[in-house]
């Protein structure tokens, strides 16, 4: 409508588009500076054994501790970090930080770190992970790399060799947000995944809608059948916890147990040395 309004108004022809682009460019610059200024922090969310209530490990989740905006969640900047390529150095920073923390805890815990498709497509992902393991002294079998199904979608042969390269380092691989992507079950045979993370959207609807319950039960069985452990994400209430426990899902993660917390709070959770109370009690004998 800029034309109708007469001359001098072209700048506002697509105001929202322009603003969105301008703010993305600004965000890209800010993110680069934030990495230099060390403004990112990693929070840790416990994974809890559904048989014993014990903490089996943590997922590392990045946040941007912005000088004026406060703690910015990843969904507000990961997309731009991916499209600008900043996710590569940022991802390396997160991995290093998480491995250092795991080594400092000095317990047999798993540390899960998210790897985006953009990082996965970087030729040197395996070399980078190997370097961080050496630098930090992290035992590879304690590191679990979480990737989404989209990683498996393109150029399967190249991706398969990348996956095998990572596996050769001795690290674990998890399929994150399982059930939301387009991967066929055949991929699960082809790609040596160690962990299936059942997406929050399915966990959300547990304890009512029987179809979702059947779906989650199927994923848990699939995991058992293929020798993959199952983690349910986004547990917010006791009902979900009880249903998952009854299904034989291995591990639980969600606000009900703990939100992602700063390293010091995660350390306090570990030092408490008390299992989380489970609806059906401890199933461990
Ligand atoms: P994700 O890997 O699926 O991580 C789980 C997300 O669910 C986290 O959000 C976590 O805080 C949230 N969550 C956990 N329990 C609950 C619950 O009970 N209820 C609800 N509503 N949410 C729950 P967060 O930290 O905001 O991270 C969002 C996404 O950003 C992550 O999803 C992951 O895809 C991405 N991300 C986070 N950190 C990194 C990173 O270091 N690198 C990369 N590449 N991506 C990251
Ligand atoms: Mg994840
Ligand atoms: Mg997830
Ligand atoms: Mg998710």
Automatic annotation (TrEMBL):
<protein>
    <recommendedName>
        <fullName>PAS domain S-box-containing protein/diguanylate cyclase (GGDEF)-like protein</fullName>
    </recommendedName>
</protein>
<feature type="domain" description="EAL">
    <location>
        <begin position="24"/>
        <end position="274"/>
    </location>
</feature>
């Amino acid at each position: 409508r800029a034309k109708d309004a007469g001359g001098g108004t072209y700048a506002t022809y697509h105001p929202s588009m322009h603003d969105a682009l301008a703010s993305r460019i600004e965000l890209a610059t800010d993110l680069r500076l934030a990495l230099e200024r060390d403004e990112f922090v990693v929070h840790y969310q416990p994974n809890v054994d559904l048989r014993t209530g014990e903490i089996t490990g943590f997922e590392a989740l990045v946040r941007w501790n912005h000088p004026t905006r406060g703690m910015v969640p990843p969904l507000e900047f990961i997309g731009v970090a991916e499209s600008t390529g900043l996710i590569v150095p940022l991802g390396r920073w997160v991995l290093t930080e998480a491995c250092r923390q795991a080594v400092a805890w000095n317990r047999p815990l798993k540390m899960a770190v998210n790897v985006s498709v953009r990082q996965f497509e970087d030729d040197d992902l395996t070399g980078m992970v190997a370097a961080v393991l050496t630098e930090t002294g992290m035992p590879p079998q304690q590191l679990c790399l979480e990737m989404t199904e989209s990683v498996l979608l393109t150029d399967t042969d190249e991706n398969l060799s990348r996956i095998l390269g990572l596996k050769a380092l001795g690290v674990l691989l998890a399929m994150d947000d399982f059930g939301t992507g387009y991967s066929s079950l055949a991929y699960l045979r082809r790609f040596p995944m160690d962990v299936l993370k059942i997406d929050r959207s399915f966990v959300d609807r547990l304890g009512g809608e029987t179809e979702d319950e059947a779906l989650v039960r199927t994923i848990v069985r699939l995991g058992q059948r293929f020798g993959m452990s199952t983690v349910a994400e986004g547990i917010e209430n006791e009902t979900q916890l009880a249903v998952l426990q009854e299904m034989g899902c291995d591990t639980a993660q969600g606000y009900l147990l703990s939100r992602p917390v700063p390293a010091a709070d995660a350390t306090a959770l570990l030092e408490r040395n008390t299992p989380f109370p489970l609806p059906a009690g401890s199933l461990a004998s």
